[in-house]
């Protein structure tokens, strides 16, 4: 039995009566990188937005089924994500978006601890300094920005901004971070840097990444899920899915015939 | 990411190389010292292990290609490792053949003192060693050198065969034993061929040039 | 080839014409500015800015009552229009698809088109009549109503320009919706909102009509918002229609100050929105 951190049970999500995620059952192993791939419009982004309850923010959005977060502190605790405060869920399950989106009015320093500032969680100066340094080191941004921590985050390059956004999510010490096509707005070098970074991060946090790029899923993931027309077609270790997929649709997608 | 995994794969293929090399070495030593345990070890421990490793390496190669779409040198390396893997497993099988014949021979009186066969084995093992070394170091000169030494081993095999024929003609009771000795020398010769293949593969990895089948001398880039 | 050269000539002539008209259209403004400064600048001095009007015939005197009055009226208008305007603007930007938003947008647009004198009359009916006398408060309310559509529109437009991702980033950190609006969305649009407020201020600073039956005017210095108060445009109006030549000079001076004030606001607005 692998160590599972998040599990969905018959998860179905819709916008305005239009079902975009159909009856998905998925278990995500702890401290691993799980990639969710599929052609555009297959519901992969909606699926992860159900994990941290961002989906319900869209007008006329509906979610059925369960999302269970399994926390392992002193003992194992199963949390039904839809039975607690969504604000709490989002602090336990962080998110990074397609376009780098540091807060334009905040400095780099403030952006890292934005989760604390905006939630009104008071930090001592020393605590804040420590979190900022530690987190920026984790995303290998510290050396690049340590001399200009109090400048605006929007002055950084796209790749640096995206790493800052990852740092902002990590600073809240979440169980999982969800990345929604985090490199689609970046150049190849910045993309590679983020991919390498994710590989290092998986020791401290579970990573779920949505990507429409088969190559990226292959390069970085330990497990891969293939979605098509809202359904979870295939899910398993990347080595297996990439070399001998069970489902014909997966085969077609991997060989570039669909999507 | 790819670099890291490629290194693991290289380590694995070298491990496989060392394993089959030790299998040949053990089967010859078992023959010469009449050590039955050593020979049985080759058959019962090393051979299954080599087969297992072959499958493992195959899978690693396929996974790397499927997931990383390697190009240029990385691609050449993985494809050649795939071929080397095949050759090494075959070498393992030949070491098994040698051990089987050796098991037959050590139970029986000697046809003749074995003089050329140990020398031939030594040369063959050295060729295999050098081909693997050339892979580790990416040394295409050493690899080419291995290919050139194939003739030495061929000469040994012819020499041994001629000698055995005279024994068989003069005393037909030696035929069965002589055939086993010949089988050993033939397997050693095949191993040397496969070591040559590995050498050729290494040249292809390092230089991107095909030197097989007489293309040896055309060292310039093989345009159409 | 002939027609080719003819075409080039034609397009040159047109472009010369266009440039000419563009220059011509600035002429009225430049003339206004020229006359106002020419006639007004000589009147303006320290005394003019810091003393109260004196009866006709007495030399000296100034327009302090009007400067203070306009300042107080603008402050009252800002207090009313800024919070209302920003929150309505946020609502329209956030819940732009709802029926209420549709109605409210319609109302805002109509309000923008209501003649200012009508606003004055309405406030007269609402406040001046029940109170029984004119007051600074009623003038401020009238100006506030004039300003409201400008603030609402500019807030809505600027907030729509703020990427959705910024808001989502905040929500995804577990920040509640209202905090996200207050601490992330509004600060991100701050300069735009400020531009709207300044533009609104510039718009109301010179309004005369709504003040006629509300603030009414007052020759004395007044800080009580429940009493009638003077204002720059009122003073200019009263002085300009008077039969006294020295009052006409003062009207020019006051006009000059008012124009410079509005012009400065407009320039600041431009500078902020350019950044």
From TrEMBL, chain A:
Keywords: ATP-binding, Nucleotide-binding, Phosphate transport, Transport. GO terms for cellular component: membrane. GO terms for biological process: phosphate ion transmembrane transport. InterPro entries: AAA+_ATPase, ABC_transporter-like_ATP-bd, ABC_transporter-like_CS, P-loop_NTPase, PstB-like. Coiled coil: none annotated. Pfam families: ABC_tran. PROSITE patterns: ABC_TRANSPORTER_1, ABC_TRANSPORTER_2. SUPFAM superfamilies: P-loop containing nucleoside triphosphate hydrolases (SSF52540). Residues 6-254 form the ABC transporter domain. GO terms for molecular function: ATP binding; ATP hydrolysis activity; phosphate transmembrane transporter activity. PANTHER family: ABC TRANSPORTER I FAMILY MEMBER 17. NCBIfam families: 3a0107s01c2. This is Phosphate transport system ATP-binding protein.
From TrEMBL, chain B:
Signal peptide: none annotated. Plays a role in the regulation of phosphate uptake. Belongs to the PhoU family. Keywords: Cytoplasm, Phosphate transport, Transport. InterPro entries: PhoU, PhoU-like_sf, PhoU_dom. It holds the Pfam family PhoU. One of its GO terms (biological process) is intracellular phosphate ion homeostasis. This is Phosphate-specific transport system accessory protein PhoU. One of its GO terms (cellular component) is cytoplasm. It is found in: Cytoplasm. Residues 14-101, 118-202 form the PhoU domain. The keyword RNA-binding does not apply. Homodimer. NCBIfam families: phoU_full. Its main location: cytoplasm.
Automatic annotation (TrEMBL), chain C:
Belongs to the binding-protein-dependent transport system permease family. CysTW subfamily. Pfam families: BPD_transp_1. Residues 67-269 form the ABC transmembrane type-1 domain. It is a multi-pass membrane protein. NCBIfam families: 3a0107s02c. The keyword Chaperone does not apply. Keywords: Cell membrane, Membrane, Phosphate transport, Transmembrane, Transmembrane helix, Transport. GO terms for cellular component: plasma membrane. One of its GO terms (biological process) is phosphate ion transmembrane transport. Its main location: membrane. This is Phosphate transport system permease protein PstA. It comes from Candidatus Chryseopegocella kryptomonas.
